[in-house]
Each structure stands twice: as C-alpha cells, then as structure tokens.
# Entry
Amino acid sequence: MKSAKLIWISLLLLIGFVEKSQSQIFIGTTEIDTSSIVTGIDTPWEILWGPDDHIWLTERSGTISRLNPESGELTELITIGDVNEQNEGGLLGMVLHPDFDNYPYVFVVYNYIGSSGIEERLVRYTYSNGELGSPVTLLEGIDGAGNHNGSRLVIDADQKLYMTTGDAANTSQSQDITSLNGKVLRMNLDGSVPEDNPFTGSYVWTWGHRNAQGLVISPMGLMYSSEHGPSNDDEVNIIEKGRNYGWPNVEG
# Structure
C-alpha cells in the first residue's frame, strides 16, 4: 500500500516540478488533477516514502530533506559540504534502514573530489532530533564521472545493502571483476563484505552494467534494475547472484 502511495505522490511531485502551470494531465484517457505541494527544489534525485509518513528526498547539490505531504512543509536535514555536483553527478541515491524506529540510519551515495578526481562515496548517517549527523563512511574511492555514476540503493529482507555503480564513462571497467564500476555491489549494513558473495572478499554481486539507476525488490523477493542504453536499448533486468549482464559487449 505504501509503495502504491509513494508512486502516486512521486508522480504528483514530479509533475509539480516541471508542469506548475498545468492543473490537469491525462494518462491515456484517465484525467488526473494535479497541484504542487512544494516548489524551488534543485534537481531532486531520490524520493522515498519514510516510516514517518513523510517524503524523504535528495537534491544533487547536497541537501537531504523531509517533506510533509499534507502541509507542504519542507525541512532540511543536512547539506553535505563535500558533494561535487557536475553534470549528472552529485548527491544521488538514498535508502532508510528498514527498522528505522530502532536503527534510524540513512544511507546515501554522493560524488566528491578524491585523489584521482571525481569519486563516489557511500555514507551512513544517523537521524536524531530532526537532523542527520554522525556520518560513517562505508565505502569510498569508487571511480566517478560527470555521468554514469549509478548510485541506486536498496536493502533486502536479509539486511543486505545493494548499490549500483556506473562504468564512469570507461566501458572496460564493467567486465573487470576487480573493479567496482559497472556493477551491482552487495554488503552488510556495516559496510563489510558478506561471506556468501560470489567472489571472496569482493563487494561485486553482478557485473557487466553500463549505468543502472533503477533498483527495486518485488513483494516476491525478485530484484529488478533499469539501465540506460547509449542512445536506445534501455534495459530492465532481473538481478541474480554472479551474473554478467553483458555491457559493453551486449546491450538491450
């Protein structure tokens, strides 16, 4: 029920961002009335329905906020100072701990400037008294770029965290299982490598990805990803342990 509610609220939010002058739209023959509940948001990337019945969202410039969908009140929780926003990069994916009442953790991925240029970092924050703090870096040093950063996050029923990474505009990395780029990564919630991952000591769960930026787990437990093609041939894949999804040798 919450998933369906989130889909509709997300749709209305996005309509509000780009169609503020339009109060009605059609999906097929179905007419939908729309209204903006918040404006002035700078490039929202992740939108989640939180356990507090608020909408949690990231902005690529580095801000994480909570939105009250009833009142439209937007509360800034944190602005991450070292976020590097270039082209399609910046503050990207976010997921909340599934037992948020007992473990008020918020996991986010963002680009920053590291020793080799643009890199990617996964950080866990703790939510307390209306703010996010106590950052713990779980993974960093992944190659980033102005595009192809992946960065979608989900947590499964076994308390494992999955993170997509893009090829960072370097296609050779997707087929290199020693690289963390062009992959779906899997880890424990403390950032350690699970013992049952397909490659000993490696975060790599699947490889051969170009830029997977959709990741969801169905009620039946199947994991689906959506992935951009170079100009067409976008993909929807079922993600399974240890599989090679073909990029750059196979697309679509």
Summary: The two ends are 32 Å apart (CA to CA).
